[in-house]
Design brief:
Helices cover 37% and strands 19% of the residues. The chain contains 23 helices and 26 strands. Residues 207-211 and 311-317 have low confidence and may be disordered. Residues 11-276 form the CHAT domain.
Length: 611
């Protein structure tokens, strides 16, 4: 939230008290000498209490948003005295970034997605990150001896103090916590890359961590290992940290600039957070520790940036399997799982928000709980309404578009299709690609009356209409029906309570008769039993997926000729083919394929006029 009125008056009074008298005169002369450019303001702080104070939040009297931290004329940094030399690094290509997340691997895809624009332009290169066993002490130190050397290290994790000395937590070893001395790490970085390209370290404390200890860690690292260290004074939400990172890295590495100014870039990032979050004081948590008197870390004058070469899917030697082409030639029903959604950065962000809230309330939460279990903890301990609020905060702003959506939707025809996605992406894709078909959307109700929510988009129309009674004209041979089993957001951005918790799955859908109005049960069941099923984005090892299949089909076997397309990493082909965990214990044909490979197959089949 923004600063309260009394706090706002205090930070203005502090600004007035700090920048007065001779100091104000010196500042005026420096501004004149800079020809209108920004002036670096270094706080040389030794006292711990002064280091933990947010000087960046001081505000010019009479101004509402002229804070030091987002000023266009003053660049506040925390100075570090060091005998180590400082000099900008000439960068002729991409700025290389090495991300380290010992205990939070799900944070890495979110960070990578946040940097998509910079990565796609070639301004930033994403080095293979370190997480899990690769971020244990021995493996980390070994990586610090090898190429390629990064220009930036971005650490996501926990900091602490051991006997008064700063430490960072690495991946656990033999189920025991593992911490590394920051002083030792700084020595290793200096010894390995002291004359190399490393110029910046970002210490991002995960939500719920205690980043206060990272202040002294940041100072140590800036003194010995890197010219600048960005750290957080207090915990911020993951989405705030990602907003800050997106703008910060974009400003620091932008190809149009001749130099990478770390202080200028952080002020720009703070302005973005203030603007996007309506003045939230979270903008002042990130602070910069700087060795030397110049915030320019990178010299881009001789730089040539080009987008990275696209890695083509190696499908030339692997034509579409004949069984896939034959399957797509017939009418079929699609069952679209939520594997993509649960792997997406937004879903990981929801997980971190829930974990952070529970930890802040001193409630113990084991690491890496299944999402349904974590959500159940949250709903029982904090409340269902708060869980719905957290979901809307993350998914309500999402621009998530899973791969293959349009390619799959293009193949669909009339009949019944099922989605487990909590966003209305399948319906929207069908509506866009098949405008001449009338489309019905049915979803379980979260209301006490238990009525299904029904919506319709007429053929040739664009408006979604909510239906108050069962449509007598619905015909599965002529129309498209989409069943939304996990609820969430309907078309037209209408929210209803999604299936998230264990209780939601146990009590939410008890078969088609509980989902549908009585008049629609028989035609929907008939449509599903008469056509083979194409299952995509499903996992036999996900208990909620197995439960929903049993709720849909009971003990009836899936239609003969049904097919599951599986992620090769899951190694589930044998389970599906033998029918373990499937209704009726009868297997289906299983095809292993990456998303890229399946997309290439679908495009090849479309180009060949098949199906």
């Amino acid at each position: 939230m923004p600063l309260e009125p009394e706090l706002a008056r205090q930070v203005q009074a502090l600004h007035r008290a700090l920048l007065q008298g001779d100091l104000q005169s010196v500042l005026a002369r420096l501004r004149e000498a800079s020809d209108g450019g920004p002036v670096l303001l270094r706080f040389m702080l030794q006292d711990t209490d002064l280091q933990s104070f947010p000087w960046e939040a001081l505000c010019e009297p009479g101004r509402e948003f002229e804070f030091l931290g987002n000023s266009a004329s003053l660049l506040p940094v925390r100075g570090v005295r060091s005998p180590e030399p400082w000099q900008p690094r000439e960068v002729r290509g991409a700025v290389r970034l090495l991300a380290i997340a010992p205990l939070h691997p799900h944070s890495l895809p979110r960070l990578q997605a946040t940097l998509h624009e910079s990565l796609a332009s070639g301004e930033v290169e994403w080095l293979e990150p370190l997480t899990g066993p690769r971020s244990r002490k021995a493996a980390l130190f070994e990586r610090l001896r090898r190429q390629p050397e990064p220009h930036i290290i971005h650490f996501i994790g926990h900091g602490g103090l051991h006997e008064g000395r700063p430490v960072l937590r690495l991946a656990d070893e033999e189920d025991e916590e593992s911490w590394v001395s920051v002083e030792l790490l700084a020595q290793q970085l200096h010894g390995a890359w002291g004359q190399g390209p490393l110029r910046l370290i970002v210490l991002e404390a995960c939500e719920g961590a205690s980043p206060g200890a990272l202040e002294s860690a940041a100072e140590l690292l800036a003194r010995t290992a890197a010219d600048a260290v960005l750290a957080y004074l207090w915990p911020v939400r993951m989405d705030v940290a990602l907003r800050c990172s997106r703008v910060f890295y974009r400003a620091l590495t932008r190809a149009a600039r001749e130099e990478g100014d770390v202080a200028l870039s952080l002020n720009e990032a703070r302005r973005s957070v203030l603007a996007e979050l309506e003045g939230s004081a979270e903008a002042f948590s990130p602070v910069l520790y700087l060795r030397g008197r110049d915030p320019v870390l990178f010299d881009f004058k001789a730089r040539k940036v080009s987008p990275p070469p696209l890695v083509a899917a190696r499908t030339e030697a692997s034509p579409p399997p004949p069984v896939l082409g034959q399957f797509l030639e017939q009418p079929f029903s699609l069952l679209l799982g939520n594997r993509w959604e649960e792997e997406a950065p937004d879903f990981r962000g929801l997980r971190e928000r829930l974990q952070g809230e529970l930890i802040q309330k001193a409630l113990s939460v084991p690491q890496e709980l299944p999402m349904s279990t974590l959500a159940e903890h949250f709903a029982l301990r904090i409340g269902q309404e708060e869980l719905d609020y957290e979901f809307q905060e993350v998914f309500g702003q999402s621009d998530f578009k899973p791969p293959l959506m349009r390619l799959l939707a293009r193949r669909l025809g009339t009949g019944v299709h099922i989605t487990l996605l909590r966003l209305p992406l399948l319906e929207q894709a069908i509506a866009e690609l098949h405008p001449r078909l009338t489309l019905y959307v049915l979803q379980p109700s979260s209301n006490a009356d238990g009525r299904a929510v029904m919506m319709r988009r007429e053929a040739g129309g664009v408006r979604w209409e909510r239906l108050r009674k069962v449509p007598s004209e619905l015909d599965t041979e002529r129309d498209v029906v989409v069943l939304r089993l996990c609820s969430g957001y309907l078309p037209a951005h209408l929210f209803s309570h999604p299936l998230l918790t264990e209780d939601d799955y146990l009590l939410g859908v008890r078969g088609l008769s509980s989902l549908l109005p009585f008049e629609l049960v028989e035609p929907i069941q008939s449509a599903l039993s008469l056509r083979p099923l194409l299952l995509v984005g499903m996992s036999m090892l996900d208990w909620s997926h197995r439960m929903l299949l049993y709720q849909l089909f009971g003990r009836r076997t899936l239609m003969r000729g049904s097919m599951a397309v599986l992620d090769p990493k899951s190694r589930e082909q044998e389970l599906w083919e033998e029918g373990r965990g499937l209704p009726g214990r009868t297997g289906v044909r299983a095809l292993e394929s990456t998303d890229e490979q399946l997309a290439a197959w679908l495009e090849a089949l479309a180009a060949g006029g098949t199906g």
